[in-house]
Structures are given as C-alpha cells and as structure tokens.
Amino acid sequence: MEKVLKFQTALIEQCKANDRRAQMKLYEKYCDGMYCVVMRYLQNSDDAEDVLQESFIKAFLKIDQFKGEVTFGAWLKKIVIHKCIDFLKAKRNAHISIEENELLLVEDDDWDVEVSITIEEVRKAIHTISEKYRYVLLLYLMEGYDHSEISQILNIQETTCRTQLMRGKAYLKEHLIKNKYESRS
Q1: What is the rounded distance in angstroms from the CA atom of residue 61 to the CA atom of residue 40?
Q2: How does DSSP classify residue 142?
Q3: Averaged over 152-173, what is the pLDDT?
Q4: 8 Å CB contact between 125 and 54
C-alpha cells in the first residue's frame, strides 16, 4: 500500500511539472471510475465523455491546488461532480435556486424500499425528481457523502441539505410505489 502511495505521489508531482506522460497515466487510472460517476448524473455517453474530458483538463490545470489532505480520487471526484452540475444547469439554460426556506424537520433514516424494487428502478426514479432534490439524493445515496460534505459541494446550508434530502426521499418513495402499483395493474 505504501509503495502505491509513493508511486501516486510521484505521479502527481510529475503532473504538477506538466509531464504529459504522467498526466496520461493518472487519466488512465481514474478515467473509468470517474466516467461511472458522470453517467449517474448525465445518462448520455456523448455528454459524459465531454464532461469527463473537461473535468480532467480542469484537474490538471488546478493540480497545484491538490495538497493531499484527501485522496486524489476524492479530490478529482469533487471536480467531476461540480462539472456535471454545471453542465446540467447550462444545458437547461436557467438558473436553478438550490436554496429553499429552512424548515425544522425530524430526521428520518428509514430508507427501506420494497425488496422487489431494483437498483436500476431507483436510479431511473431519481432522474425524474426535481434537480434540487436529485443532486442531494445522488450525492447522499450514490456517492456516499454526508450532509456536511453535500452542503459544501452544493454551496447550501446543512439544514437545507437535510430538508432537500428528506423531500427528495419522499418523492422517490412516492414515485417507486406508484410505478410498482401501475406495473401490477
């Protein structure tokens, strides 16, 4: 493990020196994983390839800002997610306010869904939900970020993040239940 870390640290230092071969090695190491992240947001391979390319360009331009406080993969993933969100906002050509009125809600950790519901059905259902809820759901459920991290990524208050997650979850459950009921008819 230590050998891998030293190799990766050396590779990042070479990238900071603008070494194209080192950049290509780093790209090859993270390309597939980051492509999966992009596809969860964009669901279009052409757009995903463009956003992925832009993400790596930005990462290499900003690599001097990588200080090693987190893994390189986590640092890159944050760039990728931001690029996805920027792309979706630009594509809709309308500014979406993510901030909403703060409400004091009881935390609900009940994420149980019917056993017969597949992961693919959940993924599809997430993409039917309003963007302000979708981003929080994706970051929480698919990426594994906590409320603090999500609030930093989306530049919203933590209480807003909790509110949007709860509402998004309610819409998601409602959609999944409705679709299961309709498919049985």
Answers
A1: 25
A2: I
A3: 87
A4: no
